[in-house]
Amino acid sequence: MNSSKLAIISDVHANLEALQSVLEDIGAQNIKDIYCLGDIIGYGPNPIECIDLVMEKCTRTILGNHDQAVIFDPEGFNPVALRAIFWTRDQMEQNIGGTTKSDQRWDFIGELPRRIDEGTNLFVHGSPRDPTNEYVFPEYVYDRDRLEQMFRRFELYCFHGHTHIPGIITESGKFLAPEDVGYIYKLNQEKALINVGSVGQPRDEDPRACYVVLQRDEKIVEYRRVKYDIDTTRNKIYGIPSLDNMLGDRLNRGN
């Protein structure tokens, strides 16, 4: 076990093939410590299997907005996302695997925290200002007031997901995509918002699953891209009437 490394995943979105491939990549590095920054479910065809895997494999998990929407009344979702949320809720209500296992899933989602604060490292789904729902887009580097409000809310580094767009926003106002830094970012004393990307539905025009490895001792963030069987996931989506075909189409494009 490599105790100095932490794998950070986010936005699985019920994409079992992507999650399995990422977990295999994490396992190949002998990393046992895994944080999930939310949105285990929503959009994708395998919510039950993905919840079970996250429950089994992840050390700590945060509530995402899609996770929250399945339990509570969903607000602010477009029609495609809303239909997927209701379909996902229906799947969870079918007691797959028995009542005890089903209750464990509901309890797990219902008890997820909105943030994990570890001093210099803050972990959220959305933003340090609104841990569940607020987006942090790359273009926010041009909105100094917004960024200053966010940077005031954490000590040094904030790891998040939600936009499905990996990259780093520094306090000095730069956005660094993973390829801009050779997929390796050396942490320093400058505050940074670090988006770990999406496992199950990348939106940076790279269809490969994305996550990061935090090397605690070396103070390095490494972005990793992992290929997975997109066709299998896409065809599952096409076979479920409640999941719009565009949710499968976009997986090939990575947007």
- Spatial strand arrangement across the major sheet: 3-2-1-11-12-9
The tally of strands reads 12
Helix percentage: 25-40%
Percent strand equals: 15-25%
Task: Specify the number of helices.
Answer: 8
- Secondary structure class reads alpha/beta
Using the alpha-carbon principal axes, give the shape. globular
The major pleated sheet works out as: 6 strands, mixed
User: What is the chain-wise order of helices and strands?
Assistant: EHEHEHHHEEHEEEEEEEHH
Weakly predicted, low-confidence segments: none
What's the N-to-C terminus distance? 35 Å
Radius of gyration using CA atoms only: 17 Å
Average residue-wise pLDDT: 96
Using brief descriptors, characterize the structure shown.
alpha/beta; 6-stranded mixed beta sheet
Model description:
This protein has 255 residues and is α/β, with parallel strands linked by helices. It contains eight helices and twelve strands. The chain has helices at 16-28, 47-57, 65-71, 79-92, 99-110, 144-151, 230-238, 246-253, and strands at 5-9, 34-36, 60-61, 115-118, 121-124, 157-160, 167-170, 175-176, 184-186, 192-195, 209-215, 220-226. It has a six-stranded mixed beta sheet with strand order 3-2-1-11-12-9. The longest helix has 14 residues, at 79-92. The mean pLDDT is 96.
Topology of this protein?
Elements (H helix, E strand, L loop, with lengths): L4 E5 L6 H13 L5 E3 L10 H11 L2 E2 L3 H7 L7 H14 L6 H12 L4 E4 L2 E4 L19 H8 L5 E4 L6 E4 L4 E2 L7 E3 L5 E4 L13 E7 L4 E7 L3 H9 L7 H8 L2
Parallel strand pairs: 1-2, 2-3, 5-6, 6-10
Antiparallel strand pairs: 1-11, 4-5, 7-8, 7-10, 9-12, 11-12
Helix pairs in contact: 3-4, 7-8
